[in-house]
Amino acid sequence: MKRLFPLLLIASLALFIAADEPRPAPAKVEGTVHSITVPYGSYELPAGPNVAVYLENCVSCHTSRYVSNQPNFPRKTWEAEVTKMVKMYGAPIDDEKQKLIIDYLMTIRGTPDPVPAAAK
Q1: Hey, which of 9, 10, 66, 87 would disulfide with 62, CB 3.0 to 4.6 Å?
Q2: From the DSSP assignment, how many helices (H) and strands (E) are in the chain?
Q3: What is the rounded CA–CA span in Å between residue 55 and residue 66?
Q4: Please, is 83 exposed, middle or buried when counting C-beta atoms within 10 Å of its C-beta (0-12, 13-18, 19+)?
Q5: In this predicted model, what pLDDT tens digit does every residue of 50-105 receive, in sequence order?
Q6: Would you say 85 and 91 are in contact if contact means Cβ atoms under 8 Å apart?
Q7: pLDDT (tens digit per residue) in 40-52
Q8: How far apart are CA 96 and CA 29, in angstroms?
Q9: Domains with residue ranges and CATH for the chain
Q10: What is the pLDDT of residue 7?
């Protein structure tokens, strides 16, 4: 029983904390249109070159915090991600701005490109 008490206490505390969390509004359905209200949360991105270009072009589709939740990637991966946003999701970002966004992403979440095995 002594070993079970701490587990019960932790579980009870977790349920109490979860009960205080604000609940999102349910989806609204009007005819064939479904909509949700996304909770607003501001997040200040790390400073870096071209942060304004990122904000102007990327946060219309996802929050500024989205990039902070990504792992660090090499340049080729960030290039592929930005290209995907343009080609697959229709982000209206010209080639020059894509390069600036990639430079920003490399500044805050970049890793060196891996060295090919043949070059070692």
Answers
A1: 66
A2: 4, 4
A3: 11
A4: middle
A5: 999 999 999 888 887 888 888 999 999 999 999 999 999 999 999 999 999 999 99
A6: yes
A7: 555 678 888 999 9
A8: 40
A9: 51-114 (1.10.760.10)
A10: 60
